[in-house]
Amino acid sequence: SYELDIQNKAAQQQKHISAIEKLKKAKARAERLASYGITDKLNQLTRKTNLKVDQPKLKGVLAKIPRTGKVFIKSAKKTGKSSEINEPLIKEWKKKRKPIISIVPRILLYKEQVDRWEITAIDSYGNIHREFHESIALCFDSLGKISYFDWAGALVIFDEIRQGLKHLISSSTLEEMRSYVLKLLQEKLPEAINGGGLIVSSDADLTDVEVNYIDGVCPDGDTFIVDNQYRDEKGIIKFDGGNLDDCLKEIKERYKNGENLMIFCDSKANSQAIHEALVNLDPSATHWLINGDTTENPEVKEIISNNINKSIKEQQPRTLIFTSSMSTGISIDGWINGVFHEDVYKHFTYGFVVAVGGILEPVEITQGMGRNRNNIDFTIHSGTGKTKEDAENSCDPEVIKRQIIKRNNNGLSIWGLTSEILEERLGREVTDIEVIKELEKRCDPDTGNIIDPHLDLYSEVKARANYAGQNFDLMLFKQLQKEGFTVAVGETCREKNLDGEFHRLTKDKNILDEAEGISSADDITLEMAYEYLRTNVTIEQRRQARKALLRHEFPGIDLTPEFIYKNILKDRRRRVNGHKLWWYYYHPEITKEIDLGHYVRKLKQFSQGVIFLPDIKNYTIMIEELKALGVLELINLENPTLAGVTGDPSLVRSV
Question: Does the global pTM surpass 0.90?
């Protein structure tokens, strides 16, 4: 039978491995990187602090911070960054009748703030330009909607700033608007400070990266850094480095034993498959799934807007399965309308983390775990991580920055780019003097180097993610210890089982369902697709947008479910990207035309914003580099595998 076949296969593959041995190997990898001067320094706060405390709550800190300038607060979860700092400041600014602007990485976070801080969500305004007068909560994607507001004297709050800036600088949903939003921050933050306002940026894992960026885009005003070094004692972690199958089996066993489970996943695919397994196990129970596909569902919106604690009280969910869409800002702490409910606080009795590795950074994993304020125990399945499959996979931000500048200097000159942007902006030809003056604004007068805090932020965020991806299990292990967890590591069985096999089949079925959904989606224009990408849309609208983009990318090709499944979703475009690169290689003139069209679109964006080099794609440069390396000359085109190379296989691997 099918079931017996899986069991026989599992028995043949049974193997035991020490999770401690895996961590030792990870430590050796990290030490090799350290020998090249590459460490986790991008995860540290080394800037001089103005106020250092060690206390479980931030009581008394508010009286010591200035009321104008830039305030940065590093303090662990549950220490009262919201209740002791942000909420009292909001009340002060309301009395002053000055603007209050809260900018967050995720929609769910500002929906939570609306209830707790008594401020207004951006989507609650009918006509935002006419109605806004006091407070607004929004995510980075919506910043363009308040570009015309007067920020003078405003209280600007960046809650969970680390995740927020990562989203700002690298999210694909912001690509079309990123240049404009970056310019907006560069202009509006100084406007707030120079009008007597205050910028408050807080995060449990604040680093130099975030402080330096805000200082870079807003050099006006003094910087005041608070470092609360308090660490709470937390629960016990069972750290599992083996197969996911063991973790899935334990989830079902604990559920059957009556535990209420919260399960954090770093991938949407795993969250969906685990949710389906639990629904099949107990269809009559309430199982919450909160991920990027469900946040716009009315029932999920209601869970958050109703106050998640109240929703738990009313719905009594047996499981909460969620991703980074709900990994910040939401607090399951038992408080409903000012009254503490212990049954809600203790509702979830055990936690799981299913982390593939290489998707989120370890601090984002612990952020997700911290949504439940009660110190429950966890089982963590941790993958080892992986090296990013792109050209910018260095762990050194300076290397990434040099790569980006060199790549773009080869394709176009900064002088020419600046000149064309000025012409687009002014609607006329520009003089050399005007170009020089524009370049002077972006250059260090002493070194002549380009000053670009946005490029610096991108390079540092990218390098930090690369380092975390390559050392994921070790960094997660250290992060858990640093945050006060007791981590138990032991022998892990690596045999496959029925739960794991059904999980993999469910994930594959969901991929096929998504392919069918995209293929059958209604046709929309390319312009509408870009508009959808800038906003929060339903699953159906997202599929329509994706279909429109694929139709534009592959004109004349029938977008069947089979094509989308095989070439776009199943292997995350590796196959189709390889085919495209091959085609570009043999059609260089057409490739130049494609690059030109992309360049013209970016030119229009940059004329309304800032120059952001990482968003410029240039296939012509890539093709020229491949030709210079002579890669295809090493490969036998009749047998294009490693076994069929005409040169040294080790040379092909290194190239």
Answer: no
